[in-house]
UniProtKB/TrEMBL annotation, chain A:
Topology in membrane: Multi-pass membrane protein
Name of the protein this chain belongs to: Sulfate transport system permease protein CysW
Transmembrane residue ranges: 36-61, 81-108, 120-149, 161-181, 222-245, 265-287
Origin: domain of life: Bacteria
Keywords of the record: Cell inner membrane, Cell membrane, Membrane, Sulfate transport, Transmembrane, Transmembrane helix, Transport
Domain ABC transmembrane type-1 positions: 85-286
TrEMBL record, chain C:
Organism: Stagnimonas aquatica
Keyword ATP-binding: no
Subcellular localization(s) per the UniProt record: Periplasm
Family affiliation: Belongs to the prokaryotic sulfate-binding protein family.
Protein name: Sulfate-binding protein
GO BP, one annotated term: sulfate transmembrane transport
First and last residue of the signal peptide: 1-25
Coiled-coil stretches: none
InterPro entries tied to this protein: Sulphate/thiosulphate-bd_CS, Thiosulph/SO4-bd
Function, as annotated: This protein specifically binds sulfate and is involved in its transmembrane transport.
């Protein structure tokens, strides 16, 4: 549960005279660190990120451009690459909204209520992360495969799940399953229920309370969750690889297309397509940054709140 | 400190609806399919299970996989908290850019990540050429497993701690400072406790994700049995032999272990949350 | 709230725009194949399509699926509706016959040469100038020599390399199963990296500069030289190597269901035609037709060969002795 939201604290009490200097200066220095600590922290954080994040990314882009822009562009203009982009977007477009609805529902019941077995439920939600992607694909094969539990029935009715779009979407949903829920749960737990209580007391209905009170409170966490979920949906390889069937131009997603290129020793092309995936993720991140900038005042208000 | 009595909490609606959605979706997408793993593995019988799971090679791979995942998650917990703190609290040039890049390890297909990391850390790579003369081998060494796991699970801690840290009320810090607390005390007694649950969540997720990772690790690890062979690779090897039961047995063992560890972390997290609010 | 709507709108447009209309008018022919056959079928499929059109007037579409051989076999077993399978290992087609009954168990008798229109062999690729002086298998077990072989459990390439080393040791004067096991143990003690696939092993060798020798199929060598540097590698032909047949089969149940039975059969028969055999030879795969093979002798010189069937009776027997769970390979690799 959260700290008490005593809004009267927004007007800090006047400081005792022994603090000497003006309250404003005093206040700032009390809640921030000396400059050298600040820069030390910034330095080590950026050092870590450079070593573990930027350098690998830089090498992806270097490899992509090794044979020049011509190879880069032609790798992206290949029809197989185009159909892979379409399939990847489609899988994400199915997986993300479903996980969004689930994520909000799960976070609501976990954060706003106390019930037995809650930690068990949370752990079950986390579980898909620890499942090796290969196994994640395999479980759907065990169910929907020709020898799976539902396989015979599906074959009779000529319904294709695995080695077709539904299987790819299912595998994507599985690997991105916990993202949005897990982003929202700690945030909503931290926020507590008092805002909702207040709205309800004032006569708002449950849905209206959610829409007008909860959602604005969690929208940034929600956004992070959607972005993460989306990024992961774009990039998933292992699980999708098991259920895809690898039919060129039909059931290859971008990561699978990259594998093909890499296996043909077309390293530059493989990395070019990988950089395209990175760029797709960056587009969504740019969108986030834009929204943050556009609603900066709202965001600040929410944070001060 | 908890101002809410259970009776009041009942006033919030939607419990049945949201729990219903959660449980049905969870069952459909996760629980029923995963039950299939146990069902298939059970086909081996006890002797078969013990034979498969008790082999020195499987045990060595479990040790490597879970051990490396733990190290990677701890590493990410420390630096993730640091990064989140720096992003939320400080202004510095290039902050937006760095912030935008955090999520990229998820978007890059894991195989690409593995190839890029191997290229960096191999003896002829940008980093490897400096590390190997120092006697530090990363690529084709168990250390490579940790590096790959750190990369693929990097966003978790940052992204779970960031919103909570942003949410944490500066007023409380001000109050603490006003009451005479030094900065260090304020940080450890006021700020850390409020991000602690989120940090644990991030840690748990990073750990879970690292345990299951396959695509990037097989490129960098060297895959030598008993040394640098991860458990998911053993699952693949079983599948190559069309041994579905053996593959699912190892998968079930991994799943059970991960689940127990996640449950432990989540219980601990709930406990710290409760004791904080008491 | 506007934030959320702004976010969702593009998503909805994307979903609607892409649609689910994946249905195709006519069922194309699906060839499920192993990983490195891509190059060959890029040449082969258009040639066959043109031939088929000339004979029947029909336009056809051929789809390709490539991946690790056993993984592909699993996909077909689990319901990937292949009309034909073209593999680098008869075991994988046996598996489809036995586990799913999608084709008869005697599929190898349906086409000439045990249904294998082409084959290849394991050779050594060494660094330019052969600095370690590698000439034959016994040079690979010397201390200080590092070799790159993909994991025999996950790649056909690795399996053939392993079996060739075993056979070489057994055929040495005084050779026995025990001496062969010792030889192969020493050989694998010199392997620093076990990649999961042949192409990954090549990258480790060529791009990461790991190892002195790469064991790979003959048809891989030219691509390695072309793509990874012609001046960087030499090829060594060992005194004995293994014949790796690339079998093909019609997946009869699926082909019949899709109405492609005649087409699938013709597609495979075209593999044996002179035109088809030439395409294999041009891609450095050895054609089963001796006359065509002779024509390309400059590129594909005679080799001293043995086959797995010769030594073990069948692939299944070799698999059981060496690669099954806990069998010889597992013993060797766990003990190193």
């Amino acid at each position: 549960m959260s700290q008490p939201r005593d809004h009267s604290l927004q007007d800090p009490p006047a400081l005792p005279p022994e603090f000497g200097t003006g309250p404003l200066v005093r206040k700032n220095s009390a809640i921030t660190e000396p400059a050298w600590v600040r820069w030390l922290l910034i330095g080590s954080a950026l050092g870590f990120l450079s070593l573990f994040l930027l350098l690998p990314l830089a090498s992806v882009f270097t490899e992509a451009l090794r044979d020049g822009w011509g190879t880069y562009v032609s790798a992206l203009r290949e029809p197989d690459a185009y159909s892979a982009v379409k399939l990847t977007l489609l899988a994400a477009a199915i997986a993300v909204p479903l996980n969004l609805v689930f994520g909000v529902a799960a976070a609501w019941c976990i954060a706003k209520f106390e019930f037995r077995g809650k930690q068990l439920l949370i752990s079950l939600i986390d579980l898909p992360f620890s499942v090796s992607p290969v196994v994640a694909g395999l479980v759907y094969v065990l169910i929907f495969g020709a020898h799976g539990w539902a396989g015979g029935w599906l074959a009779e009715h000529d319904i294709k799940i695995i080695f077709a779009v539904p299987g790819i979407a299912l595998a994507t949903i599985f690997v991105t399953f916990p993202f949005i829920a897990r982003e929202l749960i700690p945030l909503m737990q931290e926020q507590g229920t008092d805002d909702e209580q207040a709205a309800l007391t004032l006569g708002a209905g449950g849905f209206r309370t959610f829409w007008r009170v909860t959602l604005p409170n969690i929208k940034w966490g929600l956004l992070y969750g959607v972005l993460l979920c989306n990024a992961r949906a774009f990039g998933e390889f292992g699980a999708v690889s098991v259920v895809s069937g690898h039919i060129r131009g039909q059931t290859n997603t971008l990561p699978l297309h990259i594998e093909i290129l890499y296996n043909e020793y077309a390293f530059a092309a493989a990395f070019a397509v990988a950089s395209l995936l990175a760029a797709l993720a960056l587009v969504t991140l740019a969108l986030k940054t834009f929204l943050e900038w556009r609603y900066a005042d709202q965001l600040a208000a929410a944070r001060r709140h | 400190m908890n101002p809410f009595k259970p009776k009041q909490r009942r006033a919030i609606p939607g419990f049945g609806l949201t729990l219903g959605i959660t449980l049905s979706y969870l069952s459909l997408i996760v629980l029923i399919p995963l039950a299939g793993v146990y069902f298939k593995a059970a086909g081996l019988g006890w002797d078969g299970l013990l034979h498969t799971l008790g082999s020195a090679r499987v045990l060595a791979s479990l040790k490597l996989t879970f051990g490396s995942a733990l190290i990677a998650a701890l590493f990410n917990a420390f630096f993730g908290l640091l990064v989140a703190w720096v992003f939320v609290r400080y202004q510095f040039p290039g902050k937006r850019l760095f912030d935008a890049f955090i999520d990229l390890p998820f978007a890059l297909p894991t195989a690409v990540a593995g190839i890029a990391l191997t290229a960096l850390y191999a003896g002829n790579g940008w980093l490897g050429q400096y590390l190997e003369p120092l006697g530090i081998q990363v690529a084709y060494h168990p250390l490579g497993v940790v590096v790959a796991m750190t990369f693929i699970s990097l966003p978790f801690v940052v992204r779970t701690v960031e919103p909570v840290l942003a949410e944490a009320e500066k007023e409380l810090e001000e109050a603490a400072a006003t009451l005479g607390a030094g900065r260090w005390i304020t940080v450890t007694r006021v700020i850390l406790p409020s991000v602690w649950p989120a940090l644990l969540t991030g840690f748990a997720l990073a750990f879970a994700r690292a345990v299951g990772e396959y695509g990037s690790i097989i490129f960098i690890a060297g895959n030598i049995p008993m040394v640098s062979e991860i458990t998911p690779l053993l699952i693949i090897i079983k599948l190559e032999e069309f041994d579905y039961a053996g593959a699912t047995a190892i998968a079930a063992a991994m799943l059970t272990l991960s689940f127990l560890l996640l449950l432990l972390i989540n219980l601990f997290q709930a406990w710290t949350r409760r004791s904080r609010n008491r | 709230m506007r934030t959320l709507k702004t976010l969702l709108k593009p998503l909805l447009i994307v979903t609607a725009g892409l649609g689910f209309g994946q249905a195709l008018a006519a069922e194309p022919l699906l060839n499920v194949s192993y990983d490195v056959a891509r190059g060959v079928y890029k040449d082969f499929n258009p040639a066959f399509a043109a031939d088929w059109k000339a004979k029947t007037g029909q336009e056809i579409k051929i789809e390709q699926s490539h991946g690790g051989s056993s993984k592909q076999a699993r996909a077909v077993i689990d319901g990937l509706q292949a009309d034909v399978v073209t593999m680098n290992n008869p075991l994988d087609i046996d598996a489809i016959a036995e586990r799913a009954g999608l084709l008869p168990k005697d599929w190898q008798k349906k086409l000439p040469n045990n249904s294998a229109p082409s084959w290849s062999a394991i050779l050594f690729v060494v660094r330019k100038g052969n600095p370690k002086g590698i000439k034959d298998w016994n040079d690979l077990v010397k201390p200080g020599v590092k070799l790159v072989i993909p994991n025999p459990k996950t790649s056909g390439n690795g399996r053939y390399s392993y079996l060739a080393a075993w056979e070489y040791a057994k055929r040495q004067p005084g050779g026995s199963e025990a001496s062969a096991k010792d030889f192969v143990s020493r050989l694998f003690a010199n392997v620093p990296v076990l990649d999961t696939g042949g192409r990954g092993a090549t990258t480790t060798f060529a791009q990461r500069d790991i190892g002195d020798v790469l064991l790979t199929f003959e048809n891989e060598v030219r691509l390695i030289k072309e793509e990874l540097g012609p001046e960087k590698f030499d090829v060594v032909i060992p005194s004995l190597t293994v014949r790796a047949d690339n079998p093909v089969a019609v997946v009869e149940k699926y082909a019949a269901r899709k109405g492609n039975a005649a087409l699938a059969r013709a597609y495979l028969e075209y593999h044996y035609s002179d035109a088809g055999q030439e395409i294999f030879a041009k891609n450095d795969l050895r054609p089963s037709n001796e006359a065509v093979l002779k024509k390309y002798a400059a590129n594909l010189p005679p080799l001293n060969l043995f086959s797995v069937e010769q030594s073990y009776g069948s692939w299944a027997a070799a698999q059981k002795i060496h690669f099954a769970d806990g069998a010889l390979f597992d013993q060797i690799i766990s003990a190193r």
